[in-house]
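Page 47, continued from p. 46.
Same chain as before, 154 aa.
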Amino acid sequence: MPKRRDRIRMSQAEMWEFIRGQKKLQVATLNRDGSPHLSTLWFAVVEGEIVFETFAKSQKLVNLERDPRIAVLLEDGSAYEELRGVSIAGRAELHRDPGLLRRFAAEIIRRNRPEVPEEAMQEAAARMAAKRAAVVVKSEKIMSWDHRKLGGVY
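Result:
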């Protein structure tokens, strides 16, 4: 019989379908004293990588400038037998180029606010790019789980 861990692991296709279906990304960086700094924000998947933007002076960006290690978590489910998620550990690639920031911001807005007209979305992306930086999560280790695969048996 396969190990429980192997039974709940998502396939690559399941994992990316799950990621694309989520709205919030939990982001962990390391403070100067080594303690974790956690925040939750919107994201997009661009060219197969998770991307988010944040204020250029935010604590998470200050932390990533000092130490690029990052962990992100996407999860859902209320009851134990419904829990599923993806945890990614890796390195943050920081971007401040205004053109690239506008592109990433537009992708994030388009994904999370599809009702925003394209023209308004482009204007909002340009405003966001003026004071923000983008982070691309370069994954090094990915873990996934889907307790629904156990059929209620533990």
